[in-house]
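User: Sequence for F-box At3g58530 below. C-alpha cells please.
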Amino acid sequence: CRNSLGNLGVLNLNGCQKISDNGIEYITYACPKLKAFSIYWNVRVTDLGIKYLVKNCKHVIDLNLSGCKNITDESLKLISENYQELEELNLTRCIKLTDGGLQKILLYCSLLQSLNLYALSSLTDEAYRKISLLNRLRFLDLCGAQNLSDDALSCIAHCKELASLNLTWCVRITDQGVISIAKGCRSLEFLSLFGIVGVTDKSLEALSSFCSNTITTLDVNGCIGIKRRTHDELLQLFPNLKCFKVHS
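Assistant: C-alpha cells for F-box At3g58530:
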C-alpha cells in the first residue's frame, strides 16, 4: 500500500483492538509522512510498536497513545529522542509510565502545546515540576494527579500561555496552588477544580483578580469551601463566564 498511502498525513486507529506491534510496523512503513497518529485504547501495542513508529515516521507532531497500557518509559524515551517538534501528546491511562519517562518528554519536547496526563496517579512532583519547561503549553490535563502538590503547581504556573487546566481530583491542592496559577497563567480560559475540598473563596477571588476577562468555564463542583453565588454575582467576578459548575 505504500504507493497509495505514501502521502497520508493523519492516521486514526482508535479502538482497533486487534492491531499488534506487527500491524504498526506495516502501516507506518506505508505512511512515512504521517504528522498525526492516534491509537487510543490498544492494549496489544508495546514499546516495540512505538519503535517501529519512530523509525518509519519522522514527522509526527500529534501523538495519541491514550489507554495503551503496555507501553513503558522506553516508549517515552524513543518519542523524546525522535519527536522533539511534538506539539500534542496524550498519555491518558498509560499506567506503566513513571516520572523518569515523563521527564524525558519534558526535557526534550519543548514545543508541546497540549499534554494529557489523565489518570496517571503514580507520577509525582519530581516530574510535575518540570512541566514548567513547556513555555508554549496551552492545554494540560492532570485529572487524578493525587500526588500533585501546591509546590509543583506553583512551578506549572510558569507556563504563561496555559489556557486550559484540568485539576479534577487533585486532592492535595489548596488555595496556595490555585492562587499561584491565577497569578501566573493570566490567559486561562478553562479551569476544573472538581472534587478539591482544600480550595475556598480565596481561590475564586484570586482568579477573579488576575483572570477575570479570560475565564469562560470554571468547575468547582465538590469544592465545599466555595460558597454559592447567583448568576449575576458570578458575572461580576468573571464577565465572560459561559459555564460555571458548583457543588449541590
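Residues 21 and 45 are 5 Å apart (CA to CA).
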